[in-house]
Amino acid sequence: MVPLGRDEALRLLGGVSLGRVVFTEHALPAVRPVNHLVDGADVVIRVHDGATLASLGAPDGTPGAVVAYEADLIDPVSHLGWSVVVTGYAHLVREQAALERYAARLRPWVDRPMTAALRIRPDLVTGFRLEAARAASSTGTAAGLVPGAPPGRAPGAA
User: Fold this and answer.
1) pLDDT tens digits for 18-60?
2) Which of 6, 19, 65, 89 has the greatest number of beta carbons closer than 10 A?
């Protein structure tokens, strides 16, 4: 497990379109799968009027609702890949030109007009890459082996 720097984490996040937004609903954590794009360092998702996510957009001049956004790309067989979490404040996008630009790049999953976009400005970007174990060193400890133990047997196994 290798930690990712902010720039690499945002680059990886920009390479996928599916993620999960985590927010508070009725004082409890809630999660929704959504598609996204990365615009600079911001994560942008489309929402429709009346959606719970649309209510996260705070009025101008306020900090906004704190949300987390997570996306990953992990192979289910090899268990290799990466995961990124962005935590920050969510604001509704109000500029018409930006809304039109996002509408052209983000496709809704449901047959419902997406009338707004939510921009998450990250305060914290964390992530990690799951990599294959390095080749065993001369002592065998890099691969989790105990010196002198037969291959494939757990330490202390009879």
Assistant:
1) 999 999 888 899 999 998 999 999 999 988 766 777 777 666 6
2) 19
**Sign of the C-alpha dihedral, residues 34, 64, 125, 127?**
negative
Contact in structure between 64 and 36 (CB atoms under 8 Å):
no
Structure tokens at 10: 């945002």
Q: Are strands 116-130 and 18-25 parallel, antiparallel or unpaired?
A: unpaired
Q: What is the pLDDT of residues 48-104, one digit of tens each?
A: 766 777 777 666 666 778 999 999 999 999 999 999 999 999 988 888 899 889 988
**Is residue 29 packed enough to be buried (19+ CB in 10 Å), middle (13-18) or exposed (0-12)?**
exposed
What one-character-per-residue DSSP string does 42-111 give? EEEEEE-TT-GGGGGPPPTTS--EEEEEEEEEE-TTT--EEEEEEEEEEEE---HHHHHHHHHH---SSS
Residues sharing a CB contact under 8 Å with residue 98, sequence separation 6 or more, in sequence order: 117
Task: Please give the DSSP secondary-structure letter assigned to residue 6.
Answer: H
